[in-house]
Amino acid sequence: MVETRSQQVETRGCEVTIDGVSKTFGKTAVLKDINVTIRPGEFFTLLGPSGCGKTTLLRAIAGFHPINGGRILFNGQDVSPLPAWDRNIGFVFQNYALWPNQTVFDNVAYGLKLRKVPKTQIGERVRAALAQVELHGVEARFPAEMSGGMQQRIALARALVIDPPLLLMDEPMSNLDARLRVSLRHELRTLQKRLGLTAIYVTHDQEEALEMSDRIAVMQHGLVQQLADPETIYSRPANRFVAEFVGSANFMEGAFDETGFRLATGQRLALTGKSHRGTGTLVVRPEQVVVKECGHGLFDAVVEDRRYMGKAWAQGLRLENGPLVFVETRSALDLGTRVGVDFENVTFLPAEV
Question: What band does 1 get if pLDDT is binned at 50, 70 and 90?
């Protein structure tokens, strides 16, 4: 049995069950009968575009938004009626929500004071929480004196200091520059793994979700479009929306029959060993496209476009009187060159009835 990342350490996180949860604002349905179970110690991501319902769902789990239908359970206990302060969760906001007129110490200690933790313990726990996020000797400073990355760590320390079994994060890296986001992804994932708590993370950044998550729920229009591990989400998308939102892909409309796949433009691709039948869409990721010598492969194409992307060349190959297929290669192909094209892997999405 292959271990998942969340099984590699002893966990103390709680199981979260979202049981038929619905939420409306006025006449607008924002969440529509959501059913998801998040495992103890799992790093679980809610991924989707703005307005899909991911932040509303996170805030419903936290207790900030009352739900209109269904239940939310922590370790089997229905917490739906409980206010946020009775749910024992840590929450990291998108804008960090730090008190500008309070020191770092007072910001981190806030949750402990609300819980009436003895003063003799607060100092030790604040310093321990700051040490967990690799901040030392900053207790007397104010948030405005700190960089964006350090403010993000302070907000995380404030969430962790209460020792929650569940950590909720609402796009906590969206205000950071790209390079800092990349480094903090690894640090955050490593910390969550070491602590063994359950984490639910909201983002619209598909690269962030793929890198950090044990499982991902891709959302659109208040519904979960697909729930799976990152590899499955990327390699075997459940529908066109997931395929388009998570990564880049080539889409070719047509139909399967016993001889292969006929494109809507008339060309036939000799795709064998497929049990698919009927009309639908072929999905092929650019890195799954293989360039060969002309006359070898599923079809021939002409190099029509190329762009340097840093780690690879993105190149457009035009099938005669057909679609433009994008491929990623390490070296540039000469424009106008005729090449053979093959596919290492394809996903077929049957047309919706």
Answer: very low
The rounded percent of the chain whose pLDDT value lies above 90 is 79
Residue 254, pLDDT > 80, answer yes
Kindly compute the dihedral angle of the four CA atoms of residues 220, 87, 164, 200, in this order, to the nearest 10 degrees. 0
Same domain, 209 and 328: no
- Where among 227, 244, 261 does a domain terminate? 244
Domain count, the chain: 2
Answer yes or no: do 118 and 179 share one domain.
yes
